[in-house]
Amino acid sequence: MDDQADAQGGGFVEREVLRAFKFALDPTTAQAEALTRHAGTARWAFNYALAAKVSAHQRWRTKVAELVAQGVEEAEARRRVKVPVPSKPQIQKHLNEVKGDSRTDGRLPEGAFGPERPCPWWHEVNTYAFQSAFVDADRAWKNWLDSLRGVRGGRKVGYPRFKKKGRARDSFRLHHDVKRPGIRLATYRRLRLPTIGEVRLHDSGKRLGRLINRGQAIVQSVTISRAGHRWYASVLCKVIMTIPERPSRRQRERGTVGVDLGVKTLAALSQPLDPKDPGSVLVANPRHLARAEQRLAKAQRALSRTEKGSRRRDRARRTVARLHHEIAVRRVGALHAVTKQLATRFAVVALEDLNVAGMTASARGTKEVPGRRVRQKAGLNRAILDAAPGEFRRQLTYKTAWYGSGLAVLDRWFPSSKTCSACGWQNPRLTLADRTFTCPDCGLTIDRDLNAARNIARHAAVADAPPVAPGRGETQNARRAPVRPDDRKAARHGAMKREDTRPPGQVPPQRSNPLASPPTQIQATLF
Question: 317: number of CA atoms within 13 Å, CB side?
Fold first, then answer.
């Protein structure tokens, strides 16, 4: 028994986590129309709530401008004027008072109700399609305010925008109601949705169904979305997961693996992914976008020849969307296969902290200072985004927590590619064109990426990096730097992955890069 516990990692702990189970749907024609109607309702409700907030904001700005015109200081005028911004309860109460009803108000032509009596069709869709959209509008407004005040970290959030049909993604969210027929699996191949009915699944829901039957999962909500030609249902559940307290014996035997993400190869590892296959130190890059490039270019040319508003254009648009969706599904599937093997076979997975947004920034420059080699940089940007290093790290973040392993994220200053993995000699003149690292001190000749992966693994073990990178607020660029700095020159040179050529163990020098410091707090007083 003790040997078995040691093999499994020495013990388990039960934790209640939120976990989503995503299924591809196979709706009938009537069900697809109902899903489209619900998605349109959610889009309308979001715009309705946002319009109420924008109207209050405009009234506040008008009153502030009037006080400023009377000679009051702008800061004082901002403090004086108080205009409450309606939130979900007030918006929903007002809508319930003014909305019409096509069942009792007679058969009026479409649009006859006007803005005074909107949405007479509310009874045809589930009420949670409205309520969840109101919640999303509140969240969008709060995110903008928090970003403006400097409370929210990461990418700067702009002013909330209205959702436009054909541009915004078709999506809506329904919450589970225990008092009414809620969200449940009728069978392993059928998902019951309120108001819509039982929708057939493309794949099996046996794993979720067994968790629910054992009392280990409770359904909270379901998010229905359309991607390409498919409808998807993401069922959010509270799941009691049995998580290992520490890595298993097999994971401890493999130890730490360093992962160097790239474009030529998807990932270079410090040790083979499969001990029986020495060649598995290099994970090939599938290049899904390049493989479908000819078909995609043909479909996009066909789309460009169509007339706007025609049925032929709509068919061509669906073809392009389907190709893009297929590429995205293949990309995510390939990353899931690699990241799960890393999380289950090693005790610690070490990565570099990369700024994907900065690495894929355009090189076109400005009209006064045009960029150089813009087309070549655009091709490199497509290749980096096709490899999806940000998604690679996101998957590892939660999978290492599930399987008892740890994730170590190295800082951007560590010179993994410029340091010899055998003796520690550093080559400050190494360029991206040099694909082989040659050390003049010890004579080591090795692939550049493999050398970087070994350095990452050694640095993570020596530095005793924490299993998970310490949180510093929300980040969108996987390296905790602002994505949209005010200084365009800094945006081109500041927040990318950098390699300092300091000796091992030496503290990195203080630099004048504005992106190395936390983003400046924006002082603003609203409402």
Answer: 12
